[in-house]
Amino acid sequence: MQQLHRPYKPPPLMQLLLSTSWTSNDENSSLSVADIRQNLSEQMKCLDTRLESHVAMLVELQDFYRRRAEVEMDYSKALDRLVKQIMIRHK
Q1: Which residues contact 9 (CB under 8 A, 6 or more apart)?
Q2: What percent of the chain has pLDDT over 90?
Q3: Which pLDDT tens digit goes with each residue over 3-18?
């Protein structure tokens, strides 16, 4: 079976950077280094916020599964005691 390959499409910022003429020195240039730096700074803030929220979610999930494992261990021990009691009664 032949796989279809889609051409690579760079992210919007990269498209903008690639489409900008860096050899032009005129004042009407659409992007300046300060604009790029500010845009990247804003993107980093968004990524940091997203990372923090994902880390918090993972910590909550870790705590949930740890507590769930404790509950299941207690339940397992209680079932074992119950089975032993029934086995002693019916020997």
Answers
A1: 15
A2: 55
A3: 666 777 767 777 777 6
* SS3 assignment, position 21: coil
Residues 6+ apart with CB under 8 A from 31: 16, 17, 20
Residues sharing a CB contact under 8 Å with residue 18, sequence separation 6 or more, in sequence order: 10
**Whether pTM exceeds 0.90:** no
Q: What is the pLDDT of residue 61?
A: 97
CA dist 64 → 23, 57, 75, 90 (Å) = 56, 10, 16, 39
Cα–chain-centroid distance for residue 5?
A: 26
